[in-house]
Every structure is written in structure tokens, then in C-alpha cells.
UniProtKB/TrEMBL annotation:
Protein name in the entry: histidine kinase
Domain PAS, residue spans: 414-474
Region (Disordered): 795-819
UniProt keyword Acyltransferase present: no
Modification sites for 4-aspartylphosphate: 877
MF-aspect GO terms: ATP binding; phosphorelay sensor kinase activity
Keyword Kinase found: yes
Pfam family, one: HisKA
Chief location: membrane
Amino acid sequence: MDPRMIRFSLPMRLLLVILPAAGVMLGGMILVTLHLSQRVVERFINDYGRDTAQREALAISAGIQEEMTLAEGAARLVSALAATREREGVPPTLADRRQITEYLRQAAALHPEAVGIWFFAEPDALGPDGAALAAQDPLVGMAGTGRYALYATSQEGAVRLQSPPADFDAQDYYTRAQRSHRLTILPVHIFPIQGVPTTLVSHAFPAMVGDRLIGVAGVDLDQRQRAHIYEGHHPFGAPIAIINTFGVWGYHPDPARLGSAATFGDGPDYQFTPGERVFVNQAQPYSLERRLPDGSRLRRFTWPVDLFPGEGRRLLVMDVPLDRLARPFAGIRTAILMAGLLCALLLSGLMVLAVRLIVARPLQRLQAGVDGLKRGEYDRTLPDQNCPDVIGDLARGLEDFRQTLVERDHLRRDLQRVAACIEVAHDAIYMMSRDYTVLYANGQALTLVGVTDGETLLGKRISQFVTPETAATLAGLRQQIAASLAHTGVWTGRVDNWTTLTGHRIEAVEFTASNDAGGDILVVARDVSERDRVERERQILQRQILQQDKLETVGRLAGGVAHDFNNLLGAILGYAGFLVADLPTDSPARGYADRILAVGASAKELVRQILGFARIDAGVQEVVPARAIVDDAQVVLRSTVPATTRLTCMTEEGLPPLRANQTQMMQVLMNLVINAHDARRGETGDITIRLNRGPLPFTFPDDWAVADILPAPVGAPHVVLEVTDQGTGLAPDHLSRMFEPFFTTKGQDKGTGLGLANVHSIVKAHGGGLAVASKLGAGTVICITLPSLSGPSLSGRSMAAGTAPALSSGGAATPSPLDPAPARLRVLVVDDTEAMGELLREGLTRRGHDVTVCGDPQAALTLLADQTRGYNALITDQTMPGMTGLSLIHAAKGRNPGLICVLCTGYSANVDEATARAGGADAFFIKPLSVKALIDRLDTLYGTRG
């Protein structure tokens, strides 16, 4: 038989397609039914059991966590009240105590499942305690002392408020949270609730303001009630149990096993196999099948139970008989068999359908394609062209004919599209003859020469429609155009100040001319005025950004220099302190050492000002004395302007405090003083800074131009910061624009135009007002209104000192003679600056401590890993080669959580008090540091942990 006959025979194609497909499908259905049915059931059983264990664990965790939030809410309420009063500078009031009492009452009424909700305050933590408070209202003060302590219980729908026993603060449920300053979960204990001894589990939360403890809030949960909650969970009719990571049963349906250790071993007599121990110890979920002594088979599912998020210390255990698990899936095997039978029936139907699809349908589609071509429908591709038979040959022949018709139709449409695109193009397009007469022009080309009708332009030259000046420019370019077209076939040029006879003017027009295949010249003209303007603005902006980058670089350099200088200054002040401690009072050398300390204190203040300029501040506003804004800036300002410029600062006495960001206010004064200095009319000048209660609205001389940039509310408490110069002054039309970004009158490359814009944004962020007055040849006055706080004025840095948290220490105060240490500690000092390391070695050794100094953080980790050294404390610098101080503390705490860790830094834009605490540091010091303050803090931390 001819192979071509086999290939193109339709019956043979039907056999080759239908018979193999039928055999493969039937065989596949049998294999899938026999092999996969059991695996499908097993997978469904395992997933269903694991999901059930997870739901049970989450339900138990959610119930307990909801009860724990009652005590946490009370602690947060007290912390917020105490912090608010501390910011306001007044002690808590009786209203605050009553607010806490009402919270406990409502919490006990809304959550009767909690046996008791309580709060016990430290003495005088919520205002002065006294016996008179209890006499006035027993719900705000304990009898005999007035100390706030309350216990709320809810039984049988009634809430009872009472004072706890007098020794309540001496018990574990109070003292553990008091000492640790964190959430404490107490083991099972007995406490009388309304006179009835009750088995409880307590969760205690400390209420803190910074490092200061206000009191402890707690919630007591009845252990028997919790057991009832567990007994109510019987998934698949099987009881649950809870085991902790130490292998002890926290709950078991058999009361005799409650609190006992689980058994691990091989065989049905053991509760867990040896392989399950690692999952129990790590509280990780797992599932496995086990067999009981009676021969029955169980499937064990486990899931972590967290009393609070991330705890991971308990595991729910659920043993379910396999017959109960498999019951919901018993019909799966039958369903799969029925599906196989249905597929076999469908396969039979497909055999009948295949004949129609392979023979009849292709012929019908070809007939429909021929009818479409008769109607002029050329876009529909004819089907069945890949068929290797007569139908395919017919389809391919008809497709070749259709492609010819489509190409002809596309060519016509392309010509129409090209003409439409040329007409609406933004560029002016001309077709010219060799003598530059216009043969064709689109709409934009007509606009360029100032005509509206194409017939007016055709057959004429463009030079007939422009001014004589523009026509002369075009005539001068013709020889250049002809030479370029003859040499390269393309010419590009531009004409500036293009002007038509109708008065239409364009700053710059760019022309491109090229030779056409027919011997004509194609000219494209484009208005590039906007492009030129954007390019000029881009170059100006690039210069301004470069100037701003230079300023940021200076700031980073200042911060780096201050960091290194702090290390050197710390060593100088430390050793000077040793001289003061060792030398007699009447010794001349003692006087020299005192002078070193005095000069060092001035140097420390200068470094602090430099750091304030260099630091990248996030804009946090704090309550500060009003005069501190000017005082802090004077040191930097006097070094900024030359000695020929006289800078005068005047501050009114008794000004109220402000809520401001001192670093940002320093930037405001720096920008204003620099601008005032640049406005001098000669080599000398006067700049005056005044801080007073100036009246609102401002009054200026009548002949001065005034601009109210940011209006300030009249009648509100305020202070006025005024900067006056006697410079060249500003024109009236410049006053309203002087605070715009990138606007400057200093000339090219002499100013970025960002300084006063920064002043505007800072004053606006502080809620202040801004006004400016100026007169050419007389000078400029800029007045800034800053909202003030009501209350007595603050002087110097009393407020900053009063609000400093207990964790932070620093400064270079004159050290006093070191007292004997309460205990001899083994201390590891890590600092890559040798002078600082030796200073700390000397100071700590004088106190009686055993000190090791290390300059490499990696070497310090090796020393800490040596258990024979037994270090009690680690003192580390923050910025060191290879590793930061916080990273070193994190690694050290991971090996020894009880190690006392102290972090010191000379300057870091990324590390502050809160960051050090979050990173595990027990104390934080800013260099140059006081050796005595460091040692006293170290002894205090050791005494607290001891």
C-alpha cells in the first residue's frame, strides 16, 4: 500500500486517534482507581485531623489571651495616666485613681470568667499617699496608709471591690513582675477569693513610665474553670491533653496524671515514642499513627498552644481512633469507581463525536470561509490549514488567495493612516522642490508660517511669510543646506527668534532636511523652545542639588570628627578626674586639674552643639526653656560669621517654655544669620537676635515693605524670635517669594535657594507664624512667632535634666573619690580607642573590680565564650571595626542572659536611648562619660540582680 494513501486516508486517521486514546484512558482510569484511592483517603484524613487540632489549640489560646488582656489594659491605663501627669509636671490626682477603679469594676463586670482583676501601686506612685485618702474614699487608698491597691471580683453577677491583704506586695504574684519589669505568669497557687481559698493561675503586668515602676496589674484565673474549658473540647469524641516543653502534663483527662511527667519509650505502654521527644521539647506540631495495648489504632495530632503570642511552650495532644477519622471519607473509593465508569461511558460517546469533528466540521468551516471571501470579509483566517490531507490542501490554497486580498486592503489602509498621522503630527512637515517651493504642508506647517489655508502656501517659498530678519537667516542657511544634502543627504540646524508676518514668534525652531527618493526635499520643523527651557532648568537644579550635597557632607564630617573627639575628650576628663580625686585640695596641681575639667566641660558643650548640627533629626518636639533655643545656637553662630560682623543676642527674662525641636530651631537661626551676613553692604555689619513676648500683630515702619508669610493667631500665648540686619534689603516683589524653594537673589553658584524654604517648613511644623519686612538700603527684619506653653518659665537646662530617663547617663562632671565597690566584679571593656579602654581600666580597677580591656569585638566574643573567666559585666563602644556594640551585646546576651551590658557611644545617628534598650543594653552612656557615674550605675545594676 502506498504510504501516501495511509497518510491521507480519513478512516485510518480515525483509527490512529480513537483506538490508542480509548486504550490509554481506560487503563489510566483503572490504575488511578486502584492505586490512588487509598492515598487520597489517607491524605484527607491527615489534613482534616491536623486542621482540627489547630482549631482546638487556637480556640483555647484565644480564650486565655482574652483574659490576660484585662490586666495588660489596666497596666497600660496606669502607665498612660502617669506619663501624662509627668509631662504636665503635676502629680496624679484622685480622679486618676477613680478612673483606674472604674476600669477594674467594668472589666470584672464584663468578664466574669476572670476570678479577680487587681492593681497594686508603688508607694506615692499615683500621688502622695496618706491615711486621709482611705478615710475619704476606701476605693482610692488602703486603710491606714492611703496607698492605692484594689481587688475586683465578680461572682453571681455582682462586682465586689476590696483592698487586698496588707502583705500583698510581698507575694510572688507582685514581686516577680516588680523585679523583672515584664509580664510574669505564676504557677498554680491558692488565694482567698471572697473568703474562699481558690486555686489560681495569675498573670501580672508591670505599669512602667520609662524605667520607673508605677505598680503591677494582674488577672487571676481559676484553674478548675480552665480545666472545664479543656474538658469541653472533644473533637471526634476524643479528649485532648496539654503537655509543656519539659514533658509535664499541664492538663490530662486523667486527673491522676495532671502535673506528672510523661513517659517516653518504645511500645504501647509508653505515652510517647523517643522520636516524639524533640517535637515535644520544641512545641512543634506533628502527626503519627500509634497502636494501643488492646490492638486498636489511633492517629495522634498535635499543635502549639500559646498563652500569649510567640510563647511556644505548650503542645495540644489529640489521639483520635482511625475508624472515626475515616468515617467521613468512607465513600471516596466508591465515588472514584463511579467516576471511572462514567469516564468510560463518555469515551464511547467521544468515538462517535470524533467522526463529526474530523470530517464533517472541517468541510463546513471551509465552506463558511469561501462564503466570507465572496462577501469581502478578508480578515478571517481560514481554518484547518495544518491538516495533512485533502482538506488541508484546500484550506492552504484558499488562505494564499485570502492573503493577497488582505495585502491589497492593508496597503490602502496604510496610505490613509500615514496621511492622517502626518496631518495631526506635532512637527511641521514640508515637501519642497529643489528651488524650495512648497509642494505639501501639514496642519502644523501652516501654523508655523502663520496661514490657515494650504492653497495660500503651496507653490510659494516659506521666506515669503516670515519677517525680513527671519528670511535673511533662512537665506544664509541655503548654501549650507545644499552642501550637506549633497554630501550626506541630511541636514540639521536651528533658527532662533522665528517670527512670522502675522506676529507669531517662537524662541527656537529646529529643522531637519533630507533627500526624497523622487528628487524633492523633505523638511521637518520642530518648536524646541520648551525643550531648551527644561534643559536650562535642569542644569540650574543640578547645581543646586550639588550644593545641598556639599552641605550634607559637611554635616557628616562634623559628626565623625565629634565622635573621635569625644573619645579623646573622655580620656582627658577621666584622667583629670583621677588627679582631682588623688591630689590634696591645697595642691597647685589640684588647681590645674580643676581647670582642665572646667575647660573640658566647655569643650563638651561645643561638641554637643556640633552634634546637634550634624545629627539627622526626625523632628521630635519636646518641652524646652525658651531661652535655650538662642543659648544653644550662640556657640555655633559665633563661629559661623566672621569677627567683622557683630552678632548680638538678647533674651527677655521669665519667658514661658516652648514645645519645639531644638536641632531644627538651630537650623532656622543658622539659615537666617547666614542670609543676614550675606546681605552686608560692606565688610562689616550688625546682626541682632531678639527673643521676647513681642506684641501681635507686628508693627513696622510705614515706608517698609511687609509680607505676612505664615499668619500667627492673635491673643494666644507666644514668644517672638526676631532676626534683624542692616544690609542691602529686599525689593517688595521679592518678599513673598523669598521662602519659595530654589528662589535666591545671591547670584549664580552663590546660593541653593533651599535655606529659607527650610525655615518656612520648620516654622510651619511648629505651628508658628512668619512675617518679614524690608527696605532697600536699610535692612531686613524677620519675625517668627512660636506658640508657648502656659505655666512658670524654665531656666537653663533644668527641664532637660529633670526628664532624663534613668537608663541614660553621661557628661564629664568632676569625679569624686571612688567609694569601695560593694562587690568585686569581673568586667570586660571593649573599645577600639586605646585611650578610652585604659581610662576605664584605671577607673574600674580603682573601684576594686577585675578588668580586662579588648580592642576587637570578635576577640571579645571569644573571651566571653570562655566559661572559666566568669565575666559579670560587659562595657562596649558602639562604633567599632567589624561589629557594632549592639551586635556584640546581642551575641553576648544570647550566651549569658544574666550578663550586665553597658553601651557607650560618642556619636551615632542610629542609636539612642530607646534603641539601646530594645537591643538588650542595661545602661546607655554618651561620651565623654563620667567614670564615677558609669561605676555607680554598674554597681546599682549588679546589686539589683544580686
